[in-house]
Design brief:
14 strands, six-stranded parallel sheet, alpha/beta, 453 residues, binds nicotinamide-adenine-dinucleotide
Amino acid sequence: MKICCIGAGYVGGPTMAMIANKAPDIEVRVVDMNASRIAAWNSDMLPIYEPGLDEIVRKARGRNLHFTTDVRGGIESADIIFVAVNTPTKSYGVGAGRAADLRFIESVARTIAEVATTSKIIVEKSTIPVKTAETIKEILAANARGVKFEVLSNPEFLAEGTAMADLHEPDRVLIGGERTPGGEAAIKVLADVYARWVPRDRIITTNLWSSELSKLVANAFLAQRISSINSISALCEATGADVDEVANAIGKDSRIGSKFLKASVGFGGSCFQKDILNLVYLCEHFGIPEVAAYWESVVKMNDWQKRRFATKIVRVLFNSVSDKKIAVLGFAFKKDTNDTRESAAISVCRDLLAEQAKVMVYDPKVPADEIRRDILGVGKDDPRLMVATSAYEAAKNAHAVVIVTEWDEFKTLDYEKILASMVKPAAIFDGRNILDLAKLKEMGFRAYGIGKC
Ligand SMILES: NC(=O)c1ccc[n+]([C@@H]2O[C@H](COP(=O)([O-])OP(=O)(O)OC[C@H]3O[C@@H](n4cnc5c(N)ncnc54)[C@H](O)[C@@H]3O)[C@@H](O)[C@H]2O)c1
């Protein structure tokens, strides 16, 4: 069997590396039009940082795992084609700022129809709006030359930072397909690939639309928990309650559960916001504005939380950060990834720069040019924005240290040393609640967490 995956990103690369490792008899080709990304996949410096990924790529690369820019060749020889291209929020025209931009999906469907000379199973791995499979089928049917395609939905539930563990032991694998003999047969082929390492009872099959919608709903529910606890964090600050204590108390209720109750400066990442907005757009499209407004409030709460954090920094620093140096520790949207898409750090840094602060950022995995590009835009520069090579360098002569990403190394920094190098009174803002605030206060910091007084 031959598999081709179109899109060598955060989903395509790790997912295919896992399949290639678990199924050495399957030939796996990951193709992408981005030549520098493919070159990185073929080098010692992989384009994405993910714990455990290097090792499994090294094991299978060159054996049954190949990375190439030959998209057409990959399509032609494959039995199963995974589509793992990006589906960003549309930034123009109808649905701008909400709907998913499906131009990459459409372009892939057209290329498949043009190139394929034998029957294939097309697997939607990308997160897409409900009914996208219909669009893909229509494009394929209108352009194919007598070749038969089955379209399946197989959304990916991995979380960046724990992708390899999530792929190795997924809570579930979801496969949606048409309830026709051809559809059922295709579902079985794909289920058999996963069954090499995933227990059968964790492989769920549904109709196409349930599968497509489940991915959007899963992300909406996860993000909703974060916005819910973040909304309570503001109330904790007003009342003297401690949000971690509240989260612990409510999480012990088995109906609520303890996961995803960590208050923070806000969620980031390429998926939560985009997928909720996509859901909102769908609801509006189908004439249910009340449901759209309900889910949109999850994103609004997140925006408010990011702004609230930056505002608090300004307020604590005597209502002005103008010309004050502020050290921002962490730039990735979460620990153990180099992905910065929609990172809370971007809006916090922009808000601080707008207040004329001097901002020095440090992140262990994100390169300096990426940090500058994300905050300022392509090709722009601002002398007030600097990038450090260590947390200590960032904190030196700063008025405040701001933790935005929960990298483990920030838990074990020498905060006495940091305090000694800062302008007094020195402030620290823990946007992830990873530090012992009481201890920092004892040391002499003005220390603030999220949802704590
Ligand atoms: N990142 C995550 O944690 C995550 C988790 C689950 C699902 N998803 C979904 O998976 C999809 C991919 O996400 P990602 O984070 O891997 O995106 P990404 O931007 O990292 O990777 C997508 C890749 O597709 C390539 N591509 C686009 N059009 C192409 C074409 N026509 N031919 C060849 N290559 C093409 C791009 O060059 C890019 O390298 C999205 O729909 C996303 O919502 C992402």
